[in-house]
């Protein structure tokens, strides 16, 4: 399932810069998004559409998930973005990203347009996914209905920079903690997005961290959302990619332990294992809830391609 593909790191690439588009192909990000929105000046947008179509059709992206961020529906560009990019390179595109989503109707509008452009170009209808960015107060208030607005939705993404502007937040350091506030000022927003994503079975993605030279500060912000359950984070610079790939994947130890729990619980509940609903794995008591937690960690580890280094041997 597309939704379960690993999205630990999602690299932002401005569509107006052919050199960056070319360079992005060789980087180990799980996903790239080629940007027509805020990283492209208005006068550069027509050229950026052509650059993106060419970069997608040229290929060389390997297993990387290829998304294009179109402009939001309040501009004059969204329609042409979709028609040109999907019409020009729809077969080489995995998702469209829609920024500044205000309500479910905006997602439905994109779904309808996308369906028509797919039909007009002989593409498989419904294959291209939608990623929605929540980056305004209105979007957050509507996030639960946005999350179920189209079966194409694969991720809900937090857009902290626009969001902080939208709610008049005083800090300018996006994603960083602030000495004037004792807690994590983003916790409420992240949790709302995470609940909407989990309730509708899609991925939750944390947004950018702008201090690109400060990798330890990026790691600190990434660890906060990874701990909550987020699936990945945007990266703006190659230096942030390895950090995101490591932080959003489970550790080797946790992954091995999760696979062990699944095997041990499988055995315990089987005929041969005595059909037990709870069992001991070493010093740990495991039951159905342990299996569910283990499934989450094992799923993320498998998606990230971690090797399994533990084996389960049933008790004699
Ligand atoms: C991303 O688009 C952001 O506004 O943070
Ligand atoms: Mg934004």
Give a verbal description of the structure:
This protein has 316 residues and is an alpha/beta fold. The protein folds into two domains: 9-247, TIM Barrel; 252-303. It has twelve helices and ten strands. The strands form two sheets. It has an eight-stranded parallel barrel with strand order 1-2-3-4-5-6-7-8, surrounded by six helices. Strands 9-10 form a two-stranded antiparallel sheet. Helix 2 (45-58) links the parallel strand 2 (31-35) and strand 3 (65-69). Helix 3 runs parallel beside helix 4, helix 9 packs parallel to helix 10 (238-248) and helix 11 (252-269) packs across helix 12 (288-303). The longest helix has 18 residues, at 252-269. The chain is globular. The two termini are 38 Å apart. The model has no long low-confidence stretch (mean pLDDT 94). Magnesium ion binds next to helix 7.
Question: What is the secondary structure topology, with strand pairs?
Answer:
Layout: E1 9-14, H1 18-24, E2 31-35, H2 45-58, E3 65-69, H3 78-89, E4 95-98, H4 104-120, E5 129-134, H5 137-141, H6 143-147, E6 153-158, H7 160-166, H8 187-199, E7 203-206, H9 215-228, E8 232-235, H10 238-248, H11 252-269, E9 279-281, E10 284-286, H12 288-303
Parallel strand pairs: 1-2, 1-8, 2-3, 3-4, 4-5, 5-6, 6-7, 7-8
Antiparallel strand pairs: 9-10
Bound molecules: glyoxylic acid (GLV) and magnesium ion.
């Amino acid at each position: 399932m597309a939704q379960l593909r690993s999205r630990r790191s999602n690299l932002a690439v401005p569509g107006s810069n052919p050199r960056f588009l070319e360079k992005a192909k060789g980087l180990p990000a799980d996903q790239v998004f080629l940007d027509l929105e805020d990283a492209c000046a208005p006068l550069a947008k027509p050229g950026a559409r052509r650059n993106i179509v060419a970069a997608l059709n040229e290929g060389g992206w390997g297993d990387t998930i290829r998304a294009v961020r179109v402009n939001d529906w309040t501009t004059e560009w969204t329609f042409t973005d979709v028609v040109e990019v999907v019409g020009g390179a729809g077969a080489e595109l995995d998702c469209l990203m829609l920024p500044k989503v205000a309500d479910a109707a905006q997602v439905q509008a994109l779904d309808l347009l996308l369906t028509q452009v797919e039909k007009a170009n002989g593409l498989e209808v419904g294959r291209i996914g939608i990623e929605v960015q929540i980056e305004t107060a209105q979007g957050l208030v509507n996030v639960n209905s946005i999350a179920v607005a189209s079966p194409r939705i694969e991720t809900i993404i937090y857009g902290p920079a626009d969001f902080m502007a939208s709610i008049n937040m005083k800090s300018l350091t996006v994603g960083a903690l602030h000495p004037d506030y004792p807690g994590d000022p983003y916790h409420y927003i992240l949790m709302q997005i995470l609940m909407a994503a989990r309730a509708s079975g899609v991925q939750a993605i944390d947004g950018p961290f702008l201090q690109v030279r400060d990798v330890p500060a990026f790691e600190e912000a990434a660890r906060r959302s990874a701990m909550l359950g987020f699936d990945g984070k945007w990266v703006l610079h190659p230096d942030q990619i390895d950090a995101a790939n490591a932080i959003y994947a489970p550790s080797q130890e946790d992954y091995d332990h999760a696979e062990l729990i699944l095997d041990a619980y499988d055995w315990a509940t089987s005929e041969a294992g005595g059909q037990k609903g709870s069992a001991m794995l070493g010093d740990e008591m495991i039951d159905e809830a342990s299996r569910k937690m283990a499934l989450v960690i094992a799923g993320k580890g498998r998606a990230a391609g971690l090797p399994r280094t533990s084996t389960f041997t049933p008790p004699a």
